[in-house]
Each structure stands twice: as structure tokens, then as C-alpha cells.
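#struct-pred
JK: can someone run the complex with 5-amino-5-deoxy-1-O-phosphono-D-mannitol? inputs below
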Amino acid sequence: MCGIVGYAGYRDCSDVLVDALSKLEYRGYDSAGVAVFENGEIKVCKAQGKLEMLRKKMQEEGKPQGRVGIGHTRWATHGEPSDINSHPHSGAKVTVVHNGIIENYRELKEFLSAKGVEFVSETDTEVVAQLLNYYYKGDPLDTIIKTISDLDGSFALGIIFADYPERIYAVRRESPLIVGIGKDENYIASDVPAILKYTRDYYLLDHDEIAVLTDSEVNIYDIHKEPVEKTLMTADWDESAAEKGGYEHFMIKEIHEQPNAVNMTVKPRVVDGLPNLEECGITHENIKSFKNIFVVACGTAMHAGMVGKYVIERLAGVPVTVDIASEFRYRSPIVGEGDLVIIISQSGETADSLAALRLAKSLGAKTLAVVNAKGSSIAREADMLVYTHAGPEIAVASTKAYIVQLAVMYLFAFELSLARGKITEEQCRELTLSLLAVPELIGKILETDLEKSQYISTKLLSADSLLYIGRGLDYALSMEGSLKLKEISYIHSESYAAGELKHGTISLITDEMPVIAVATQRSLLEKTVSNIVEVKSRGAMVIIITREDFTIDEKAYDFRIDIPSTDDMLMPMLAAVPMQLIAYYTSVLRGNDVDKPRNLAKSVTVE
Ligand code: M6R
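RT: done, C-alpha cells with the ligand placed:
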């Protein structure tokens, strides 16, 4: 998704903007641009392609020289990626960068065209720039208030007015935006990593709040032009957390950060050997009597919910429905009072997940957010909130955020089961102890399985398509394994419940279709192995991910990856790791842009 930055201070503005934009590259983009006040005039430089193209253009055409400006990385929505469609966009007196989608831009464009305004791009953003320009009578604040009252949809806007060369204006609705506070310099950005090199202090802008920044002052107003007092936030990680730290890619760094991330997420929530989520607003009293639980999320986060479903139903005996957020919000779900809706989201800003949360609340359900990004919209709007402590996840392919989402699902399931009297305190202690031991086991896998995973990746390079199979929790996990592989290697893959293969999909099996089989569940082992033999005997190359204490006939597979043993229920947290590694190495070997796979964005803030 698009990234916004803005700067007012004493440094070379173009340099700061491009540097800050480079920290937002993970969000995905196809063009970039800046607008800087140079000797009191707005100078724009923008280019299709990676930031390198913008740097090159700045060299060729002259870098805008100044101390105040705005910058943008664009992920195309309206109009193809091109120099013209790149941001910033301008009217005569106003220049704008925008993240989000203006849903009524066509009507507004017609309105402005009828007034004689001419447009050069196909974007919805230019419409905002021209509307601001149309309403501008000398007071930027009045202009912004009038303009955003006309806008439907989502936006975070960085705005500069030609008449006010020392100021940046910023406003948001739905799309995220922060205001970074430095000494004699201030910033705006879509996300914290953009400003970490310069400051860790920031304000979170709320919906329809307008920030006015100079190098020495930040004032924030509501839509009625009343000043707003904000709480200063401080990022609890520094710049190095958002850097590669010697690893070749963020993804492999983040895979290695998993033991620590799980520790940070689980340990503070264990008191006297039992899960304790009181600081998150979760007590035995307020969770024990939910009739139904819904887990609503997108992509990887939804897959974490699938694992949660199996565990909660098995342990706590409460029915759990897992929904893709974009389906939930439009399928008239039967949800209401007495139900709990859990929204899982790394970014806390995913548009569909946020809409699902709001829908669930409006239907009377209680909501619980499991979120990584502090102060994000989903975190702020849910009734109960459990933060995952993965730190910044930069690679588009989610790894450590998934693992900690699983960890929270387990903590919640254990606590719920205890609250409902479905497990004894002793059983709960045992499970919690096993969860606390997971980081060490992940560490072991990272020591022993790297090379094996790398080797297996060499066997997948030429495949056109792959199947991931498993039963029960292994099936829930295989969904994530399959997504991980396809999103970064660009090899098609599907996950299938192993027992379902013979109802159609097995006809696809040939010696050109590798199968990755997950078999970690003791009670299902025999049945899973039968399914594995079915595909093996039809020519598939089979890679089995299983636990070291399982004996499986060698004829059933071609390659075997062993992982340490723990409670069956916790095995997904371990088996996920070789799957991540296989996806990672396959992508590296295919020469792909591992951290920024094509067409994808890290934070999906539009529908
Ligand atoms: O920020 P969220 O967790 O809400 O994002 C949801 C999905 O877009 C995300 O999990 C996506 O599927 C992963 N980046 C894929 O690895």
C-alpha cells in the first residue's frame, strides 16, 4: 500500500524524505515522488519504479533543495503505474500525497471538470488536490475541513500549500498516519519505521484530525477546528529492529527472531504457571460464557485463526467459526450478543478486518483484537486487546507475526478452557509450560533444519504446482505453508485436507506435482500416512514434515524433515518453521524479490 512521509526541519528535506520512504518500501509500491519547498516554490520530482529511479531522476534533473516537503511511495489503484500517476499531485496552490481510496472521486471529478478544472492523471488523488485548490481561499485549515467533508472512502493525506512554505498539513480517515516529534524537526509518516532513525516519539492521528507542522511546532485540530491534546507515544524498538542486521533479507531475519518474539509475547502473560490475560481485559468471568466464537482475519492472520479454532474447540468445547474478513462483512453473519469475535491482524489496519470488527460491534458481539502494531485502528476499537510482541515485521511474507498470533491463540484457549472448567489447573499448567518451552525448540529447528530446507527447495524450483496436505491441525498449518510458498516463490500451490484428496484433487497428482505432507498429530498419523502413500504411489515426490519420534515407512516419502516433539496441540508452532524456510529458500533460488513479492503490499488498507 502507499506510504506517506513529510518533513519540516533543518536537514536536507529530499534526503530525509527518500530515506524515510525507503523504510516504507516493505509496504509495496510501484512509483515514488517528493515535493519540496525550494526557495519558496514547490518543486516536484517523481518517477515510476523503485526509489532508485527517483534518486536517478533527482540526479539528472536536480534534487529539490529545501527543508520542508512531502514524499510518497505509490501502490497503484486508480490508473497504471506511471510517472504521471505517481504522487505528489497538485492543483495551482496545493500539492498532495495520499494513501487510501476516494470512493466518490468520479462524482467529484465531474463536479470539478464542470467548473473548468483539467486533470492530467487518472488518480483519485489528483481529484483531492484539485478539490483542495477549488476550496482554498487563503486558510488551509478551513480548506481541509471543507474538502474532507466532501470525501467518501479512506485517506491519509500529506498536504502543502504554496502560500505556507514552512508548513505541512496532514489528515486521516481510516488509513494510518503518525506525526513524529523531533527537536527542531517534525515528521509525518504512514508507519513508525520511517522515522525511527530520527525520533521514537510520535502522535497517532485519529479519524478526521488535522495536524499542522512546522520545524518547531505541531498543532492538532478536530474537524471543528478545536485544538486536540494528544498523548505522546514512544516506540519501544529502535532503528535496528527495522533493519536487516547482517541477514540477506528481512524474511530470514524475522524467521530467526521467532524464539524471542514468542518469549516476549508469552512470558509476561504467565503468572504462577498459568495464563493471565487480565492486563488485556480478559478475565475468567468475562470469557467463560460465550456461546460462539468467530475468528475473523485475512491471509496469514486468518490461518492463525484456523489453528485457534482446532485448539479452542478441542480444549474449551466452544464452537468456533473462522471467517475471511472480506466475506464476513458481506455475508450477513449470524453474530450477536453472547458471541465473541476475535480479529487477528499484524498491522491492525487491514481494511476488511477493521470493517469486520465494526460490524461485529454493531451486531452486539464482544470483540477481542490480537494485534501487533501498537495504537493501530483495530487495537483501539476492540473491546479487549492482546498485543503480540513480534516487533516490526518488514518482509511482506508474514512469519514471526504468525507464530506469535498462534501463541496468543494458545494462551487464550488455555485460559478459556480453565475458565469453563474443561481442563484442570494442573493440565493448564502443563500446557502452559509446554508453550513456554516452544521458543527453545524453534531455536533448535533453526539450528538443524536450515540446510535440509535449502536442499528441499532445490527440488521444488522447476515445479509448476504443489500440494500441501495434512489432517486436523496439520491441515490448518498447511494452509499457511502453501500461502507462504506461493506468495514469494510464485509457484502455484494449494493446501488440502489429506482425507479429501480422493474426492477430486488426487487426479492432479503426477510425478510433476510435489506434495508437502505435514504429519505431526499422533492420533491422525496412521490416516495421514495412508493419504501420503496414495499420492506417492501415483508418482508424486513427497516431502514429509514430521516429528522426530514418529516411525514412518521410508517408502512413503522421498524426503523427511524432522522436528522436535512437544504436545500435539503445539506442533504447528514448530512445523511452521521448516515451511517458512522452504518458502524462503525457494524464493531466493528463483531469484525473486523475497521481501517485496510482486503485486503485494504489507498492509492492505483498502478493500
Ligand atoms: O496486517 P494483517 O495481519 O491484517 O494482514 C493480513 C494479511 O494481508 C497478511 O497476513 C498476509 O496474508 C501476509 N502478509 C502473507 O504473508
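RT: quick notes.
The chain has a mean pLDDT of 95.
Residues 425-448 form the longest helix (24 residues).
JK: thanks, will look after standup
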